[in-house]
Amino acid sequence: MDKPFAITLDVRSSLANHTGSWRSERPVYVDGLPPCNHACPASEQVQAWLYSSEDGSYETAWRRIVNDNPFPAVMGRVCYHPCETACNRAQLDTSVGINSVERFLGDEAIKNGWLLPGPAAPTGKRVLVVGAGPAGLSAAYHLRRRGHDVEIHEAGDQAGGMMRFGIPTFRLPRDVLEIEIARVLATGITLKLSAPVTDLAATMRVGGFDAAFLAVGAQLSHRAYIPAGQAARVIDALSLLGSAADGERPALGRTVVVYGGGNTAMDAARTARRLGADESIVVYRRTQAQMPANELELREALEEGVQVRWLRTISQVENGTMTLEKMALDDDGVPRATGEYEQLAGDAVVLALGQDVDRSLLDTIPGIDISEGVVQVDATMMTGAPGVFAGGDAAPSARSVTVAIGQGRTAAGHVDEWLRRSPATPKPEPQEPVSFEQLNTWYYSDAPHAMRPRLDAARRVADFTEVVGGLDADTALYEARRCLSCGNCFGCDNCVGVCPDNAVAKVDVAHGYAIDYDFCKGCGLCVEECPCGAIVMEPERS
Amino acid sequence: MTTQGVKFYQVGSRAVGNRLLDPSLRTEQANPDRRNALNSGHRACQGCGEALAARYVVDAAVRATNGRLLAVNATGCLEVFSTPYPESSWQVPWLHSLFANAASVATGVSAALKASGRDDIRVLAQGGDGGTVDIGFACLSGMFERNDDVLYVCYDNEAYMNTGVQRSGATPPAARTATSEAVGPQPGNRFGTGKDMARIAMAHEIPYVATATVAELHDLEAKVERAMSMRGARYLHVLVPCPLGWGSAPSDTIRLARLAQRTGLFPLFEAEHGEVTSVQPIRGRVPVEEYLRPQKRYSHLFKDPPATAVIEAIQAIADRNIQRYGLLSEEA
Questions:
Q1: CA atoms within 13 A on the CB side of A221
Q2: Phi and psi (nearest 5°) for B115?
Q3: B332 falls in which pLDDT band (50, 70, 90)?
Q4: What is the predicted pLDDT for the residue at A252?
Q5: Are residues A40 and A65 in the same domain?
Q6: What is the pLDDT of residues A279-303, one digit of tens each?
Q7: What is the domain partition of chain B in residue ranges?
Q8: Could B47 and A525 be called an inter-chain contact, meaning their C-beta atoms sit closer than 8 Å?
Q9: Contacts of A13 in chain B (CB under 8 A)
Q10: How many angstroms separate the CA of residue B294 from the nearest CA in chain A?
Q11: A426 inside domain
Q12: What local confidence, expressed as pLDDT, does residue A83 receive?
């Protein structure tokens, strides 16, 4: 032994001391459910595609969207973005402008000509999709990707359904819609226009179809009986929106009254302004609190000078005037007639009182159950007729484009399982979305929402130019980077830094971090200091 | 302190690193090749603030000196848990002598290096609050007075922790320790005592004095960097929460350090030659109660009825710091 004075043992490293044995709980990385994903009716992995956008990987981000939803550019314009309502960032400053980033990505895809993923190996199965609206197109896309042969039969002479006929061009320019529909069809889907299905069984037999998805929509305007004198102009909202979408400019007069409180009513009132009405007045029988129209649509309508008469019904229409009856809400919030009347001058009345399903096809299919005006389906979206599935506005649904697209995707999954005779995939355990309290928001910088440019209200009503503009690349990048990445690691290195025991190491960007349980004492600092709540403590198994 | 003027990033520059940030703007702790001056296997308690701060400071100093660094340690927690003979967690040349004399030993090392023409090798001395403000006070004051070329770092956990949580000259008012028990008419540590070591260091008019916490890593590293760019006596005072002595959850160590700063109880500033040159403004000020409540050493303040007057007196200390250092000047 050749050791210095008073030294009897060899110097050793503390690495011999495995402090991991102290631990009673261990930190574990998790992928939480971000509230945006949870809220998305089309099941988009919002946080994941924002993550890809954050470093400018726009194509990767776009591919992550179209994995679930083939209409990013449409979504970025017409979706009512429940994701933003759910966004945890709202509690910090303002929610992330998810919708504007989606639109940016959608527009990038159009600009760069990115194509949708092609189909899997052919399965030899044929699926008939009835209706080329958002639900039908979405189902067709997802079925095609799974290798099925898909044919869409559309009664009308154009594809798009409510995206084309129910949404004004100032919200969704037609060229954008055309491109996204064409891209879906280009994956190898046959579209037959002006091909109404009148006998489903015959069509399926003749075409050799193994399954059918009915997405016939709801385009019959709900009528209300209003005593109307001669020469009174009463039209329904869908025809108005449809003809405006086709480029017609019907003259409605100076004052237009829109009856109803939904999104269609808002679109009709805004369209009326653009058709030259000085006054566009919405009459709704309840108050703003009960109004089904999306807040955003109401706000944009009000900005454009649309007026609303709350708590009124229309009881009579004469040439040039209409009689409104005042309503009052009872204790249950139901509007009751008060017997008080008032006059309102108006040249035309547009009825926007909701839409019903056209049952002409449905009533001919044996086994189908129609109640409350819609087709009833089981948990796999199959109707009472085997192999016949239904979705979109024709089935029980919240009736928005995004919901319909989501239903198309879900239905495609069920149709696929049915065709393969494979047992239904068990639904994953419902997971709670990551809450604001699970985040350590101290680490996030204050950064307010980037606003999308909007046309001035005065310029908006002059024509059908798109109202809301897109973000430029810098702003989209900024907006994506505002994402808090709830419940999912975004590579901030905090866990590596805050460990007093050097027990966390970075693997690489793709694989995140690894915890060395030989030395981790289980203090929980990495969990506490993770900004996005992507680490949790789990009891140590003995 | 943060120097990030490029684009907005999810976490600004407050997190340890960020995949979107240029590596040069990340902290040294995000560097996979950091020195790890204090290696795994040390025997510090779960969630030890001092172990964390020691690695932060020494790794940053290693980077600032291109690895030409030698560390001297006073007796205390850090020495005990890192170096139980014959094991050591240190991955830098490291010396320990006595409780009181770390500053003097560092002076000697510095002088020896200079005499042997090796003054490219820099010296860092470190100790706890006991070894700094009480036991090693005279040695440290002498080192300051002579302006010896040493950066002295005090890891302040506000009591003598490894010997059983006895009161030190850095223990704050009202805190319970083994020698300032929560009994009698004025439970916990008395008001009006204790030493503000950073201000005492400033009074020596040495080239550089700064305060830091384990919660503000970018700020801490910038201060070590600044200190190592200078010669002469420099002093860095780092607040390091102690789960054992403070009676706090091990996972709360960084949160408490952050709250200490956000209440104003622990001001972050830099001073050169006796004058304050910069302060870190409080971002999101909180009342002292938020800082006191999670700590069992203050639990006697929150009985029924709560010791409102004492809490107010502690708040007054925070308010005075805020006023003295102008901690609300920006971003208030």
A1: 24
A2: -65, -30
A3: very low
A4: 87
A5: yes
A6: 999 999 999 999 999 888 899 999 9
A7: 23-325
A8: yes
A9: 39, 41, 87-89
A10: 14
A11: no
A12: 96
Nearest to B15 among A9, A443, A502 (CB): A443
Interatomic CA distance for residues B182 and B220, integer angstroms: 34
Q: Which fold has domain B23-325?
A: Rossmann fold (3.40.50)
Nearest CA in chain A to B258: A442
Q: Distance between CA A93 and CA B294 in Å, rounded? A: 27
- Residues A145 and A204 both lie in one domain: yes
**A319 and A366: one domain?**
no
Query: Within 13 Å of residue B247, how many CA atoms lie on the same side as its CB?
Result: 15
Asked if A445 and B17 come within 8 Å (Cβ–Cβ), the reply is no
pLDDT at A43 over 90: yes
Q: What global pTM score does this model have? A: 0.90
Show which of A331, A351, A371 is a domain's final residue: A351
Do A231 and A338 share a domain, yes or no?
yes
Quick check: B189 pLDDT over 60?
A: yes
Helical H runs in A344-448? Answer: 401-420
Distance CA A106, CA A95 (A): 20
List of chain B residues whose C-beta atoms are within 8 Å of the C-beta of residue A447: 8
Whether B261 and chain A come into contact, CB under 8 Å, resolves to: no
Contact flag B250-A524 (C-beta cutoff 8 Å):
yes
Domain shared by A202 and A243, yes or no? no
What residues of chain B, 283 to 322, have a C-beta less than 8 Å from chain A?
284
Sign of the Cα torsion A343, A344, A348, A354 reads negative
Residue numbers of the domain that contains A515: 16-31+489-539
Q: B32, A506: Cβ pair inside 8 Å?
A: yes
The verdict on B51 touching A (C-beta cutoff 8 Å) is: yes
A26 and A45, same domain (yes or no): no
When CB atoms are compared, the residue of B30, B250, B258 closest to A525 is: B250
- A13 vs B255: CB contact, 8 Å cut-off? no
Q: What is the CA radius of gyration of chain B?
A: 19
Three-state SS at A101: helix
Question: Which residues of chain A does B155 touch, with a Cβ-Cβ cutoff of 8 Å?
Answer: none
Count: domains in chain A: 4
Give the separation between CA B267 and CA B326, rounded to whole angstroms: 10
Residue B7 has pLDDT above 50, yes or no: no
Higher-confidence position of B51 and A449: B51
A3 at interface of B, judged by CB pairs closer than 8 A: no
CATH of the domain at A231: 3.50.50.60
* A529 compared with B6, residue with greater pLDDT: A529
